[in-house]
Amino acid sequence: MKPASPVSNSIIAAGLLGTAAACAPLAASAQQVAGTVALPPVTVEGATLAKPVAKVVKPKKPVAEPTVVDEPVSSKPSKKVPQASEAKKAAPTAVDAAPAAPVDVEAADSSATPGSERGVSSDTLGTAVSVVTGEELRAQQVRHAAEALRSLPGVSVSQQGGAGNVSVVRIRGGESNHTLVVIDGVEVNSGVEGFYDFSSLATEDIERIEVLRGPQSGLYGGSALGGVVNIVTRSGKGPLTLRAMGEAGSFETRGGYAGVSGGTDRIWGALTVSARETAGFNIAPVGGEKDGSSLKTLSFKGGISPFENFSLHGAFRMTRQEGDRDGFDGGVGGFNVANDNLSTFEREQWSGRINADLSLLDGYWTHTVFAARAERDYIDFDRGFFPTTSHLLDDNTKYGYQTTLRIDGPGGGRAVRHFVTGLIEKQDETFDQPDPFLGDFHAERGRTSIAGEVRGEYFDTVHLAATIRKDDNETFDDATTWRLQGSTLVPSTPFRLHASYGTGIKYPSFAELYGTFFRYTPNPNLKPETSRGWDAGIETTLLGGRAVVDLTYFKTDLENEITEDFSGFPLITSVNIDGRSRRQGIEVAARYAVLPGVVLGGSYTYLDATDQLGVQEIRRAPHQGRLDVDWAFAHGRGHLNLAAIYNGEMTDVAFALPFFTQTTVTLDDYWLLRLAGSYEVAPGVELFGRVENLLDQNYQEVFGYETAGAAAFAGVRLKLEAPMLREASYK
What we know:
The structure is a single chain. The chain is mainly beta. It has one domain (6-721): TonB-dependent receptor, beta-barrel domain (Maltoporin, Chain A, Beta Barrel), CATH 2.40.170. It is 5% helix and 53% strand. The chain has five helices and 38 strands. The strands form seven sheets. The chain has a 22-stranded antiparallel β-barrel. Strands 3-8-9-6-7 form a five-stranded mixed β-sheet. The chain has a three-stranded mixed β-sheet with strand order 25-29-28. The protein is globular, with a radius of gyration of 25 Å. Residues 1-40 and 46-119 have low confidence and may be disordered.
C-alpha cells in the first residue's frame, strides 16, 4: 500500500477528531446554535412480517392518528428528556436547518418482499437496521449500490477489479451468498452461485436501501442466513416529474439516465432507463489490456387503485451487462493472479412482481396475493489457461398469499396494539446449462412455506415480535426457522434498548451441488448451512436530538459451512465443514447535526470471524469504519460530501506456482477518500462533480485483482416538475 502523505494524514486526523466529538457527551451549552436541528426518524420497509398492504383507511371514530399508519401515537408531554427514537440515521436534505422528512406509509409503495412490513419505524425494531436514503445517494453521487453499502455497520464489499466485475456484499462476516437481496419484493440472488452480483445494480431509481443484519430466515426464508438488503425504488406517486442526468469522467466513462414519474392514489407509475459504459483500466497486475464494461437498465414501478380498499401494483426491472473479464491464470511473485487473456462476459437479468392488495374492516384486516419471478442468463467466454464457454440460466418463481389482522386494546385504544400475520408461499427454482459437447444439464427444486408472526406495541415504549417459518422442501429435509426481537425505551432517559435472536438456513446453490463447468466435481450430498445468532444494543440521543449513537454487540454460530475443496486441483468440489464457525463483533454508528446544514456521521465495526479451527476467515477485515461530513449551503442549492472509508488488514487465498498449492496471503489495509459536490445553478438544473480514491491508494479487495486509482467525474442533472396532480377521489 502506498504511504499516506502528510496532507492525507491531516485529513484523516481531522476526521477522527470529528467523530470523537460526535460520540462524546458534550455539554449542550457549548454547542448551542441558532435553531436546533434534530435528526429525523426513519421507517423501514423490510422489517417484520406484518404488512398493511393497501392504503389503510382510518377508523371512523374520531381518534388522533398520525399520517404514518403504523407509527405509535406519543402520549408523552412536550417537555421531556429526548428519547432515542427522536434522532435516527437518515441524512438531512440539502436544505439549511431542515432535515429530511421521515419515509412514511404514504410515500412508500407496498412492493416490499412478502413477509415485510411497510412503514415500520426503525426505533421500534429489535433488529439492527441501517438505511441509506435516496437523498444520500444523490448527495454522494453514488452510481452503484455496492458503494452505498461499503462500510455500513457490519457490512463489507469485495470487488474483483473495476466497474462491471463481480461485486459482492457480506454482512457480519457471513459469505456473500448468506445475504439475501430483495428489489421491490423480488428475490434476485442467483440460483447458480447463491449470491447477488451488485455490479448490475445502478442507483438512479432507488428510493432507499435497507440493511437488516443478523439471521433473518424466519422472516425471509433461505438465503437470509446473515442478513437482508432490501432495495425500494421510486413509487411514482406525486407530481409529474421528468428527470435526466449525464456525466463523464476518468477511464473514458460516460453515462446517464432519463425517467418520468407521477400519479395520485388512484393511478401512479415511474419509468427509468439508464446506461453506463467505461473503457476501464487493467485489473490484472501485469499487462496493459483495459477491462471495459457496459450496463443498461430499464425499470418500471406503478399501480392502480380503482377502489379505496383495493390496489393492483407491480414492478419490473431488466439489466444487460457486457465486459471484459480477466481470468485467474497468470503468474506474479510465484502466485497465480489475474491475467490479460481477452475473456469476456454477457449477462442479462429480468425481475418482476405483481401484487393484488385488499383491505377490510377500515384497514384493520389486509390481504395480499402476489407473484414474483427473476431470471438470469449468463455467458462467460473464458480464453485463459482452461478455455471454455460457460452458458448458465436460472430462474426463481414465487407466489403466495398473506393476511394481517390488527387488534387494538380494550375499547379500541391504541396504547396496546397487536398485529397477527399469516403467510403461505410456493417457490420453484430451475437451473440449465446448455453445452453443445457434453449435452444440456437441467435441475430443478421447490419448496412450500408457511409463516406466522405476532407483533405487539405497548404504550409507545415496548415493541415485541415473534416469527416462525416452516419450509417443506422437495430436495432437502424440512426446516423450521424462527426469530424473536424486542425494543424498549427506558423511561425518563435518552436510551433505547434493542435485541434479537434468530435462526437461519442457506440451501446449497446449484453450482455447489452440480458444478458449473468441467473442472467442478458435483456433490449432490451437500447439507444446508444453518446458523443461530443474537445481538443486543443500546441507542441514545444527545444535545436535544441533534446527535444519536448506537452500539450493538452481535454473535452468530454457523454449522455445516460450505467451502470449496482445492485438494484435487485442477478439479474443485464443494464440501460441508464439520464443526462450528463463529462470527462476533461490535457495531457503532453515530450522527451529529453540528450546525444547520452540517451533519457529521461515522461508523465502526470490529469483526472476529473464524472457521471451525479458529482461523480467521478470508476477506473479513477485523476493523473497518467510515467518516462522513455533509454540508448543505446556499439555502440548499449547494451540497458537499466528504467520505473517508477505512478497511483494515485481512487475509485471502492464493495459489502458489507451479503446482497451484493453496496458501494464505495478507491484503494491506487502506483508506479511501471520496469528495462530491453539487450546485443548483437554476431551478431544476444542477451541476455536480466528484473525485474517487482521492489519495490514489493502491489496494486489493480480492487477491490478484487491481482496483482503480484516483478518478474524477462531472456532469449535469435536470429535474422538471409539473404542477401537483389532482388527488384521486373514490366517490
